[in-house]
Amino acid sequence: MTTTKQRPGWHPERLRERREAHGLSLEAAGECLREVAERAELRLAANFQTIWSHENGNVYPGPHYRRAYCLLYQATEPDLGFRLPLPSEQAGASDVLPVPTPTTNPVVTEEAAAAIAIGLNQVTDAGQRHGQADGEVLKSRVVSAWRGRMLTDGVKNPILVLVGGYAGSGKTEFARFLGDVTGWAFLDKDSLTRRLVERLLVSLGGDPHDRHTDLYMNEIRPLEYKCLMDTANDNIDCGISTILTAPFIAELNDEAWMSRLTNRCKAKGMDVAAIWVRCDTESMREYIEFRDAPRDAWKLANWDTYVQGIDTEHAPPGVHLTIDNRHGAAVSIADQTREALRKLLG
């Protein structure tokens, strides 16, 4: 839970209105939220006192609570009064994601594919300046991968997808969603390298949680990315479609790096696509505080300095598709898409 402060668009009374419209008591709403959270792997206790505090505006719900409320009430954050809507959310909840009716008819696969396509279109940043055509191709491949899992493999070449973004932007959540939908292999830089990085930093006389000094940037970071890309190369050699998630800030801004990667993959008969997950600084800070990872301590202690060095308005030039996750909107849509598929397919 997040301490109370003035937040544009926050109308806590809407939560109570939604709960009452669903005929739920505080205790029943808590039980439903816990069930939703378990399915979506969200961390929350959801007791009636907490829900009461949210509904009365005493406490602003944290990121996992907001995601759970959206799933429970099948609504967006603006619908539930958490914040002002983004331009893509002006249409209203009924237009965001249709939930197909469960059926045994084969057409269910196409209904599910349509739900995924709508979700991807909803979170695409309409203001991205380049790569629009490549982005549309990538989204089509995600939907085709879904069809391929249900029917046959509809894509000739395997693909390597890079999902980048700043700390706390939601890149890992979105990459996991792509993995859920496509069945492509998922590799996260931190999961692959964190323990080795921490031990190496200590052995070099540094702080195991350092992610900002010259020691880390010059000696450790290049090795992290080499480990990630070496692992990806193993999959490339085997023709396995793979999703990589890491900040990729320097890499996506380096045309020569992207060109080398693309050429290497092309020689193996593999395509390459890059996704940038865009987010606002307030939401990034909220998520970083929420996950409470020691490696983020410097960023939080020097937040103003940190944000001066990042660009939240524009994606790097090597990106094919920009995902708009300002205020967690894309992650919320991903949650609802998963829920729609769960209801459809059982």
TrEMBL record:
CDD domains, sorted: HTH_XRE (cd00093)
InterPro entries reported in the protein's UniProt record: Cro/C1-type_HTH, P-loop_NTPase
SUPFAM superfamilies xref list: P-loop containing nucleoside triphosphate hydrolases
A matching Pfam family: AAA_33
Protein name: AAA family ATPase
